[in-house]
Amino acid sequence: MKAKANGIDVYYEIHGKEGAPWLTLSHSLACSVRMWDEQIASFKDRYRILAYDTRGHGQSSAPVGDYTLEQLADDLKGLLEHLKISQTHYCGLSMGGMIGQTFALKYPGILQTLVLADTSSRIPPEVGPVWEERIKVAQTQGMQALVQPTLERWFTAPYRSAHPETMQRVGALIANTPVPGYVGCCRAIPKLNLTARLKEIKVPIQIIVGADDQGTPVAMSQAIHDNAPGSRLDILPQAAHLSNIEQPQAFDRALAEFLPT
Predict the structure, then answer these.
(1) What is the DSSP letter of 123?
(2) Which residues, including other chains, have CB under 8 Å from residue 38's CB and lie 6 or more apart?
(3) Which pLDDT belongs to residue 261?
(4) Which residues on adjacent β-strands are paired with residue 116?
(5) Does residue 2 contact residue 9 with C-beta atoms inside 8 Å?
């Protein structure tokens, strides 16, 4: 399904029990709703699940230009209004976690819980050139050139070698991400700087991170935990950046223990 939200078309899917509490899933950079297939299957009997493609990704609009995390939060707000969802639990991974923090601060009272997986509350300025290099590769060589290095960051070497079909599936998500969408989001992410404001978020927060995450290392999750009073931190062994795919059972177990029944 598609909805007009904040001036763009946003693709979304709804799964699960009518009348159950809402759980919104927000994916990483260079992915789509398909990143969450395992979690949709695991939680659809307990929740009404909303999974959507972020601006610039999947089947949502991919306008040319720089995006901001506030804009991405506004996209979600527009989608929730369209669907008449007044409150929802929220789980975002990587960029999805950044959107979740931004949304919780901008629109208090809508999110009932906030799960921040393999993400950060601040991007150090010194990694700016890394993002510029990724933008340059996307613009000059296309997304296919980013597939292999991204998979190497997102999954541990043993998992990559043991699961070629998953590498093919996730690689296709990366390759099919529209260049303007990837670039637009790559301009938004480095501006993230919310660590000092985490204490303003008044809902329960869970932080989940793969022990081997290179993209947003455990230290970044620890910083969120240290600055979000009462938050819960779950570190998943033998998982890198897409911990929900690499260790789905451990991820789902941690999520199930945190979310209210």
Answers:
(1) -
(2) 244, 245, 248, 251, 252
(3) 75
(4) 92, 207
(5) yes
CA distance 128 to 150: 17
Give the model confidence (pLDDT) of 139-173 as tens digits. Answer: 999 999 999 999 999 999 999 999 999 999 999 99
Distance CA 212, CA 150 (A): 14
Local structure of residue 112 (DSSP, 8 states)? E
Q: Is the pTM above the cut of 0.85? A: yes
- Give Cα separations from 243 to 153, 161, 196, 199, 239 (angstroms): 12, 16, 26, 26, 5
Q: Break the chain into its structural domains and give their ranges.
A: 2-258
Q: Which secondary-structure segment (H or E) carries 233?
A: strand 232-236
Is the sign of the CA dihedral 138, 139, 141, 143 positive or negative?
positive
pLDDT single digits (tens) 220-229? 999 999 999 9
CATH 3.40.50.1820 given to domain 2-258: yes
For 126, the token pair is 């010194």
Q: Tell me if residue 143 falls in helix, strand or coil.
A: coil
The arrangement of strands across the sheet holding 48-52 comes to 2-5, 8-16, 48-52, 22-26, 88-93, 111-117, 205-210, 232-236
Of 71, 124, 80, the closest CA to residue 102 belongs to 71
